Description:
Helices cover about 60% and strands about 5% of the residues. It has about 190 residues and is mostly helical. It has a 3-stranded antiparallel beta sheet.
Amino acid sequence: xxxxxxAAPDANExxxxxxxxxxxxxxxxxxxxxxxxxxxxQRLNRRMNVAYGRQTATLGLSNAEWEVLKALVVSGAPxxxxxxxxxxxxxxxxAAMTHRIDRMASEGLVTRERDENNRVRVIVELxxxxxxxxxxxxxxxxxxxxxxxxxxxxxxxxxxxxxLTRLLRRVEDAQPDAEGRLNDLG
Length: 186
């Protein structure tokens, strides 16, 4: 019987143990330890994205808008980037970024203005309202993340962070064309 924490919330999704057993049945060369780590990371990522989506929705934000706010904050004061740089950081096409910026500008989260030094260039800047939304999302996320990691000691958290960062870097090295979001670990 799977552990309660491993039991799938969706009756259609097998437990990790059931999934790994099925994989092993069909592919005998499978390393069950590797599969457990990878499958657990994938499920954790999906479920965390759902949780974050629910949090941002309570604030009237989409996850997509949250990503733009985060990129602007990470860029540092005065929280300004060009649409092309935003698109690159988020792994989006310029057209998708334009659509997202249009929506966010109409919501008062960002402004879009011509660069005074280069009238061809457009600058997207975080507004005070956008920064407040970012801060409120961070407050909600901090509570969720602390609860998520509550059973891990400070040393466990440090070690887990190091291990996951090593794995992420290995994927980045193997997939050098996967720019955008992955470059922020620098």
